[in-house]
Specification:
single chain; about 375 residues; alpha+beta; four-stranded antiparallel beta sheet
Amino acid sequence: MPVPSRLLAASAVLAFALAVAGCGADEPPEAVPSLTVSLAAPQLREVSRDVVASGAVAAWEEVSVGVELSGLRVASVEVEVGSVVAAGDVLLRVDDRTLASQLAQSDAQVREARTNLETARRKAARIRELADSQMVALQDAEEAEAARANAEARLNTAIASRDAARVQRDFTLVRAPVGGVVSARSVQPGQVVGAGTELLRLIRDGRLEWRAELAEADLLRVDAGTPVRVEAPGGSVVDGRVRTVSPALDAQSRTGTVYVDLPDPGALRAGMFAQGRLALDRAQALLVPGDAVVRRDGRAFVFTVGDDGRVRERVVELGGAHGDLVEVRDGLAQDDRVVARGAGFLGDGDLVRVVEGEGAVDAADDASAKAAPAARTVAE
C-alpha cells in the first residue's frame, strides 16, 4: 500500500528537528544574568561611635509635701497637677479657726504677763527705797524683787507660748519648699489630714533626667559630659549630657546606670521608657548602604562583584548605623564593589548585569519583564 505524501513530509520535518537538536546538545548553554544590580563603593568617613541604650525618664529630684499638724480639715487646695510653682507659694490651706483662737488667747496672756511685770517692777522699786531709808525691813524688799523676777519669767513663758501658737497657725498654710512642677496630688478640700502624710509631690525645678542601663564594657567608656540624644514620642530628639555615672554595677546583670540631664525635655515625661544614643568618640569607619546588607541566620552578609560579573557572598561584622549607611568593621575592603540594591535576591556565584544608578536598575528590570513574554511568544 503506498505511503501518503503528507505523512512522508511530516516524517522528514521530524527527522530534521531531531538532527538539529542532536547537534545543539553538545554545545553548553549560554549563561544569562539572573538579576540587574547597581554597585556602591564603601566610603571611609569619620563617624561618631555611639552606644545605644534604653532607660526610664525620671524626675531629677522629687519633693514630698505634707502637713505638720494632725486632725485638721483642708480648707482649699490652690494647685493642680502640672502647676508650676515658686518657692514659698501657697499650695493648700488648712482650717485655722482653732489655732487662730489659741493664738489670740496666747496674745492675751502675754499682755497680762507684761502688765503684771510692770506692776511688780514699780512695787519692787518703792519697797527698795523704803528699805534703804530703813522704813521697812530688808526682807520685804527682797521679796518684792523676787516677785518681779517671777513676773519676768511668766512673761517670757507667755511669749514663748504665743510664738509656738503663731508657728502652728502658720502651718495651716502649706507652702512650696522649692520651685518646681506639681507631679502628684492626693488631697481634696474637706479632707481631714494627718502629720507626715504625703499630700502633694513636686518635681524640683521641673528638671528631668534619663537613667540608662549600660553593660560593663560600655559603662567604662562613658564620662560625665558625654553628649546624648534621647528619642522622644513623635520622632523628635532631645539633647542631653551625662551628669554622672553610677560608681557600682548590679552584681546580677553586670550593668550600671548613667544619669543624663535633659535641660529641655520636650515631649518626654517622667515615667516614660526611652531609647537614646551616647556619643563616645569619633573615628574613621568604612560605610556601605543599609540596603546592601543582608541578614540571615543571625549573621550579616554583603555581596561583592568580581570582574567576571559574578557575586561573592561576604560575611561582615557590622557597627552602628549612620543615617542610610551602616558601618562595616570587618570582612570588607575599601576597593571592593558592593551590590547596593537587590542583594536580598542573590546567591553566592550568581551572574549579574551591572548598571549605573537605581533608575537604571528599574529600567533594566522593566525591560527584562517586557522581554520575557515576547520571548515566550517566539518560542511558541
